[in-house]
Design goal:
There is one protein chain. With 128 residues, this protein is mainly beta. The chain has two helices and seven strands, in the order αβββββββα. A hairpin with a 2-residue loop joins strand 1 and strand 2. Strands 1, 2, 3, 4, 5, 6 and 7 form a seven-stranded antiparallel sheet that branches. The chain starts with 8 loop residues before the first helix and ends in a 7-residue tail after the last helix. Bound molecules: nickel (II) ion.
Length: 128
């Protein structure tokens, strides 16, 4: 059997050219591990049936929630429970690692110009 691939999420995130466009870096059972480079405000949405884990690799991420907001610095993570409306905001450039079920839609229950399909998220990094 080939040896398992070693991935450096921080390096993959730093190499991304498009903001708010997650890329899959690993698969764990029925979940994807993704990285993203973000800056600015995303969009309010919810994932009715799926939890979503955010881990900050670099920078600061604020996640606005209906009852307030949580702020994550490097090395900190939060799990947004299924059905919870949330809006990620990065006031400075931020690099993220995400863990989501394979079926989780990027912008959840809404479609915006920022929505990226799972196929787009599976594109090799470094390609066009
Ligand atoms: Ni989400």
């Amino acid at each position: 059997m080939p040896l398992p691939a070693v991935v450096t999420p921080a390096d993959v995130a730093a190499s991304l050219t498009e903001l708010w466009s997650p890329r899959v870096v690993a698969e764990v059972d029925d979940a994807y591990v993704k990285v993203a480079r973000v800056h600015g405000t995303f969009t309010w949405h919810a994932h009715p049936d799926e939890d979503e884990l955010f881990l900050v690799l670099r920078g600061t991420l604020e996640i606005e929630l209906e009852g307030g907001a949580v702020t994550l610095g490097p090395g900190q993570l939060v799990v947004i429970p299924k059905g919870t409306r949330h809006n990620p905001v990065a006031r400075e450039e931020c690099h993220l690692l995400l863990i989501e079920r394979r079926s989780t839609l990027h912008t959840g229950d809404v479609v915006t110009a920022q929505t990226r399909s799972i196929a787009e998220q599976l594109r090799p990094v470094g390609g066009a």
